[in-house]
What does this fold into?
Amino acid sequence: MSIIPWRNKRRNESMTDIAPAAFTQLRQEMERVVERFFRDPFGMFDFRNGVSDRWAPAIDLTETPEEITVRAEIPGVQAKDLDVSITDDVLTITGEKRETHERKSAGFVHSETRYGSFQRRIRLPAEVDADNVSAEVVDGVLTMRLKKAPGSRPKRIAVTSKG
Amino acid sequence: MPATTELSRTKERPATRAEQTRNGQVYHPNVDILELPEELLVIADVPGARRDGIDVRFENGTLTIHARIEPRQNDETAYLMREYGVGDFHRSFEVSEWIDAQRISAEIANGVLTLHLPKSEEARPRKIPVRAG
It folds into this structure.
């Protein structure tokens, strides 16, 4: 990709550099939709807000016998603009990526990132202790650690033999 | 129970692989390029990157960003959901002669890398004084 000030670019070239960016975005969006469908056709597990102009951060989810870890990549989102809540076994992450004043005032050359508010709701694989959750943002990555409720932790059952 | 999900392509992989010292996937960061009167801004999403892991180079008219990302999980981790991959970010840009390469600067906050590319003297807007005839 080349970085040429807009005015000069317009004089020298056609819009070829701009148009494909729009197509790329559309294509990525469509790929996401298709992929989401095959991943989760009934939307039972993850009900991300449809395919609008909204964005939603990508997440990963891992678990150990004691806790569940959820990480989301949220570059540019500040901790004060994030809200995390748990209702039953559904974790809801809401937030907003604010536009900088430079972005508002600038003449655009090229844009690939998404701004605005988002919400993601994730059904957790086990019941968690809502009072025992930590959430922190470091370098644009949100990490949440959720301790499983005592009843959801695996219990070792002793197996005995007779005879 | 959720099924293990496929790695999504929210982060695009570069066509050419960057020089690597570690195993793992390298990703193209998403960028915005903004034009302001005095400078261009290249704003790259590099979640997980720390200041000491960022390498910005300018060589032969090419500006290259490399952000080293530490793994967040070990290789054996079984993911219940995995929508993004974790790996270094790498991307390069051709920079026109309208940019004053000597004065390029960079800063990082909240996983967003901002490069300031000041326009050269000729490329800046100029106010032409009008004299009375």
In short: Residues 55 and 82 of chain B are 27 Å apart (CA to CA).
